[in-house]
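Work Package 4 report. The design task specified in the project plan requires that, given a folded chain encoded as structure tokens, an amino acid be chosen for each position. We show below one input record used in the internal validation round.
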């Protein structure tokens, strides 16, 4: 579903995100593709297009997230909502250990798995950014 996001709203989303992906922390300035405003709760699930429901996401995070709002926790097999950047704090659900994003909670676990935050190419990219002091 295509939703038009005004330049003003996009700037607000980028600013509230600190100019980086709110899931994997990739700075927009070093990304090959412009980050995108992600509907945390997708429009098809009743999500609204306003700052309370928009997060800045890199292309890969946004593609892997797609219209999902949750997944099954690999530890408990319980249905768990994805990490919600507007209602939750990244540091309480994830920890950066080296280049790896370690989940700390069920929401963290389903988000790391669904968004493939630790795929080998993403780990290698994150490691290069850490070494360049860009992350
Ligand atoms: Zn990302």
């Amino acid at each position: 579903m295509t939703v038009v996001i005004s330049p003003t709203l996009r700037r607000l989303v980028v600013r509230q995100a600190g100019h980086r992906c709110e899931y994997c922390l990739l700075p927009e300035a070093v990304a090959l593709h412009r980050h995108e405003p992600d509907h945390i709760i997708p429009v098809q699930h009743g999500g609204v297009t306003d700052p309370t429901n928009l997060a800045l996401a890199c292309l890969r995070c946004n593609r892997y997230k797609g219209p999902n709002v949750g997944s099954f926790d690999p530890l408990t097999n319980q249905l768990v909502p994805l990490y919600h950047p507007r209602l939750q704090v990244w540091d309480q659900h994830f920890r950066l250990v080296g280049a790896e994003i370690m989940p700390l909670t069920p929401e963290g676990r389903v988000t790391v798995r669904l968004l493939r935050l630790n795929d080998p190419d993403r780990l290698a990219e994150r490691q290069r950014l850490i070494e360049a002091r860009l992350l």
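Residues 21, 23-24, 26, 57-58, 60-61 surround zinc ion (CB under 6 Å). Validation will be extended to a larger panel in the next phase.
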